[in-house]
Request: fold
Amino acid sequence: MEELKKKKELVYKGGGEERIKAQHDKGKLTARERLSLLFDGNTFQEFMGFATTKATEFGLDKNKVYGDGVVTGWGKVEGRTVFAYAQDFISLGGTLGEVHANKIARVYELALKTGAPVVGINDSGGARIQEGAVALEGYGAVFKMNVMASGVIPQITIMAGPAAGGAVYSPALTDFIIMIKGDAYYMFVTGPEITKVALGEEVSYQDLGGAIVHSTKSGVIHFMAENEQDAINITKKLLSYLPSNNMEEPPYIDTGDAADRDVSGANDIIPTDPVKPYSMRELIYRTVDNGEFMEVHKYWANNMIIGFARIGGNVVGIVANNPEEFGGAIDVDAADKAARFIRFCDAFNIPLISLVDTPGYVPGTEQEYKGIIRHGAKMLYAFAEATVPKITVILRKSYGGAHIAMSIKSLGADLVYAWPNAEIAVTGPEGAVRILYKRDLQKMSNPEDYIKQKIEEYRRLFANPYWAAEKGLIDDVIEPKDTRRIIYSALEMLKNKREYRYPKKHGNIPL
Ligand code: HXC
Reply:
């Protein structure tokens, strides 16, 4: 017993007091401190804590540390089983060698067998230099497990330290990355030193790979945390919306918010001027249970709003255009953002709600050169492929390809509703008239009145939802205030929805 106690103490101490102090001095917590914040009470159960590196090169035989730089195990998060690994910067710099990688792979094996989410806390110097190619092989094993687990169990990564080189790719292969703000936290494929040598470009660690850059510019991370505790809080909140695996339904909670209540102020939220913006976020807050909307990618591709909420206690994934940014038009980033989210929701049985107000895809050379064709196609693919309940509400504009990309009946939407102001057409009135009457207009010296008159005609026909409703493309035109009640009713009806796809190895989504 004495020996066990002593050895356990060594396991807990990792690289020693000095390194723990250095970690705290950087404002960072140790792996064990982080895990104790994540798991309920003392439910965390460690395994392979005694494992050490098998390598002997470059003095590693004299520098064996129990745990090999990563703490692994499982426990309860708000009563549900969750697996976790936390790289331990105080032990061998949290670097990844063969045994370290085996431990992470074992976390995945057990999590996959038992159908429980994995939370990875990354804080590492990367591949352990002394273990050379074996360390790289270890990364390969971790990446493979990330991919095997994709779509089977939710994977969440907290970026709680440095991540350079290929080490960034395990986080990138998981479903959600939460990154902490501050100098001690960064991720990039190539650091500032090599960037300077290779390109002569001078850039700081934060400007190259800090949380602000990755949440606003690159879109690499999904959530930015103010500090370590905040990162754990975000993780717990996110888990509260997710099923433990792809065979489960997302967790229902009695939120106490009446499913049949009106959406307050919704009847007046759309301005009478059709080009004036309004707050889609505000509408979402008013529609969902208790105004709680967990927005994903909040600071990136602001023209598309995505996130989790509950309606009558049922988890939903919301995909909404944002008329306050590019008038709600879809660009390459917005399409990527929505498509990945749609696929996540579909993989984990989360019904999708589309809230539509989009004038189309963003035009111009910049977007075309970036491949708006390729990126826009992802949304079409993702919605068409998804078999979860899909409910669309067209609030105002819904034009052209973007109308289809936001999920319509022929693409597989189960129900499509429209508000009375909805405008559904191939293109906007002015563009349409100039194309349809091009020959006539060329012959006129002063075509303005004619254009006005034709625009009026076009608007009368298409700037309302009834023409489309008469064609059966819209299931009902609804009062905005009834949106919540109607979505809830549709969700209830669609609860046992079954839809099958042709057997195949996998599809080939345009990337
Ligand atoms: C072995 C390493 C290490 C590494 C850090 N350490 N990185 N040991 N291999 N890659 C050790 C240090 O020697 C030190 O040991 C301890 O970890 C803490 O590191 P410090 O340098 O003291 O900490 P700090 O000043 O905070 O700097 C952190 C750091 C720096 C920025 C991460 O250590 C660093 O630049 N490391 C090298 C990063 C790197 O090039 N990694 C490979 C990336 S490529 P002692 O005993 O003194 O405490 C990669 C490929 C993956 O990962 C490929 C996948 C396909």
User: Anything to note?
Assistant: The first strand starts at residue 45 and ends at 47. Residues 132-149 form the longest helix (18 residues). DSSP finds 20 helices and 17 strands in the chain. The two ends are 57 Å apart (CA to CA).
